[in-house]
Amino acid sequence: MCGGIIPVIAVSELVRRSTIRLCGGRGRISTQLSSRHIHAGQAHWKDFGREVAAECRETLRCTEGLRVGAVRRRGAPQSLHRTRKDVYSTLIARTESELQVSDSLAMVFMDGDGSDTTYRATHRNLKLSARRVVEDAVLIDSKHSQLIQMADLVAWSANACVDPHLGNKFAWDWYAKHLLERDPRRKPMPI
């Protein structure tokens, strides 16, 4: 908790994929590479992306007072929309309970442009006079927000931890190694 406010950050599939592109060497966060990332005239974007991700994870790990966390749920691919809606509703209900106990308020920031109204319905279904999450989710394009980009890195690291496969082997320990000490629950929680 930071100053009595629990930051709740939900990350969209689009942002998750952009982190995959960055860590996999396909995303471009810079137009130039330092000489240490160029070998025999070949640019090694993947190495650069992973180095940037490592610095970001270390910054998150060392930020006093910061709390991170992740929730997860397995669902059938054909039910993805419903699963996301249910996970978000459950997360907000849990957050509301925690905020009630600590007599705190919070806001939710998400990647998006407002075209998906699924998340808004969750907030509108809460009793207005008792809401601890004081506003509908604030939607911000991740291209313009370091906060959302860091949330994506947390979510992507959690995903690599709970769904390990050869394509993300390099990141299997990212959550445990860098983010665990900032997660009060110590692991991505099923919800």
TrEMBL record:
InterPro entries found in the cross-reference section: DUF3800
Any Pfam family: DUF3800
Protein name, per record: DUF3800 domain-containing protein
Organism: Tessaracoccus bendigoensis DSM 12906
Lineage: Bacteria, Bacillati, Actinomycetota, Actinomycetes, Propionibacteriales
